[in-house]
Amino acid sequence: xxxxxxxxxxxxxxxxxxxxxxxxxxxxxxxxxxxxxxxxxxxxxxxxxxxxxxxxxxxxxxxxxxxxxxxxxxxxxxxxxxxxxxxxxxxxxxxxxxxxxxxxxxxxxxxxxxxxxxxxxxxxxxxxxxxxxxxxxxxxxxxxxxxxxxxxxxxxxxxxxxxxxxxxxxxxxxxxxxxxxxxxxxxxxxxxxxxxxxxxxxxxxxxxxxxxxx
Length: 214
Known about the structure:
This protein has 214 residues and is an all-alpha fold. It contains 8 helices and no strands.
């Protein structure tokens, strides 16, 4: 698995931190923002511990199935069924352990200055320009409202729009990174929704530029 860049780590930490922002941007100051990152990292550590516990339980279930297949199976069909169950439990445990490695990378890199600085930049940009960002998102939504979006989807869109509109990040990487976040945190088809909205944001921005140039 290719190591993620500090900016990618920062986007993910910012996403986990934005859920803690108050409704009004005026209720939160830049000095308070490092605390959001600390809380996000604390949440990640708790998730790692929980996932490791779940993986351990799955491995124990796998071991129990294999022992049962040796001592209590009455025929080959029951043996196959128990071994299949054991393999599935083991695969689940492997997937969970893979997730903990990914989360551990986030935690380890969260202390890097480059990561922390960009996390705070993203949070601060979203916080200070929330109304303008939401207006951009709203204009790109089809038969939907920003307020009705799932919080995680709204925050992913806010990060991408903040990067494109206020942080001089090119639209292609901003959209691609938001899509990757959606694959990790949104619903089954969430990444398609995020991609579609941000494509319309990009198209509308280009149309506005043509109008101004014209």
